[in-house]
Every structure is written in structure tokens, then in C-alpha cells.
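Final paragraph of the annual report: two paired records, presented back to back.
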Amino acid sequence: MKTDKLKEDFVAAVDYVNAYTDPLPADLLLKLYAYFKIANRNFSHPGSRTPLINAFKANALIQAKNVSIEEAMEKYIQLVNQEVKKIKK
């Protein structure tokens, strides 16, 4: 996938998730979180006030640590298309 098209599709997928109002499974949210952070080169400490949530977020990032930026975008898009949009149907 070309880089410009990939970025465009990634932004569209992020916008779709941000506009999504129904609850999503926690495991899906954690995967989306990790891929989003990697795709945006944002490796700052999870900012939740709840230590357990921070631990889950940190674990999701650790599990995805060998994913490249482009691959993170692709995986985020794939999750949105296969999991989030499937829920809406």
C-alpha cells in the first residue's frame, strides 16, 4: 500500500473509531490503542489515573513492540474493517 494512501486510510479509520458511540470490547480497544500509539510514534507513558488500566495499556504496547509504523497503521485499519465495522452491521 502506498504511504500516502496508507496514511489517508489510517486517518479515516481513526476518525471512524473516534465517532463510534457503541461500546467496544476491551481487548479490541487495547489493540487499537497500541497500534495507534506506534503509528503515531507516541511512546509516552499511558496517562490513565488507574494503575490497572495503565498496566493493560503498557502490556498491549509490549505485545506490539516489534511492529513497524506502517504495519501498525495497516493492522489498525484491518481491525477497524474486520472488527469494529462488523459489530455495527
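The closing record of the year follows.
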Amino acid sequence: MNIFRTSLFAAATAVLLSACAGNPSATQAVASGQPARPAGGHGTDAFLGSYDTHRDGVVTRAEFDAIRVQRFRSADKNGDGVLSEDEYVAEFEGRLKRQYFDEGRQPDKAYENSIKQAHVRYGIVNRARDGKFTATEDAAIADKTFKGLDTNNDGSVSKADPQRPPQARGDSVD
């Protein structure tokens, strides 16, 4: 539990520092103490839950990118600029544990399956298949994900964006 709290503190600190560096409104969102939820998923609802730091029903590209960068940096425990499979899965598991804790749930079969799926996702996102998931690979996924959900091309994602069928969305694997 101590490692979990230390990791959570480190992640929160990274978000706050990133937000302070470039976006005053992001600083306010971080200070509100409302972490993005859920840990993962597909479609607009999961996306809004994961990336809407202002809790206003809209995810701007800046909000989205700030969280993606923060997650990547906090997951890179050895500071080498890339994520191993263990680092990638541990970052996801940390978010999943927090979600379960906040919902008053104990890890269950769905939790175990989500962790197994994180290992599968790593094999997909690490396009070079070299065991080094790079920030460039993450940025490419982020770009495809955001563009796939910003169907009205206004630079933000909200429920106002008409949903495409799942096969046409190019859903994120994260």
C-alpha cells in the first residue's frame, strides 16, 4: 500500500508540475483533487471519464495531451524515456486499483482480465516490437484516438461529437 501511495503522490506531483508549466486552467483542475476516471475503455463516455480534468463535459486536445504525457512520464520509473511492458502495465494497474478503491470494490475476475488485457495492449502499442514503448509511439496513438473521437473536428471531444460505429472509430488501445 505504501508503494501505491508513493506512486499516486508522484503521479499527482507530475500532473501539477506539468500543468503549472503550461496551462493555468489545468492547474485548477489538478488542484480540485478529481482524478480522471475510468482507468480505460472505449467510446466517448470512457474518454470523457478518463480525460475531462475540468469536469465540464469537454476534453480539449491540451487536456488530453497533458494527461497522456503525465501518464507516460510517471510510468517511466527508470527514467530512460521509454516504457517496458512492466512499466506500462504497472501504470494502468495503478489507475485500475484507484478506480476499484474509489468504487469500494475488491479486485475480481474483471480486474484480472483487465491486467491481462494490458499486457496484450502493450504488444500492440509497442509497434517496433522491441520492448521499448516510446513517447513517439504514444503520441501517434493519442493523435489517432483524439481525431477518431473529435468527429465534428472542432478540436475537442464531447457528447456533441456524433459517434462513429466502433469499427470506424479506430478506438484507442489504452
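The chain has eight helices and four strands. This concludes the annual technical report; the extension proposal builds directly on these records.
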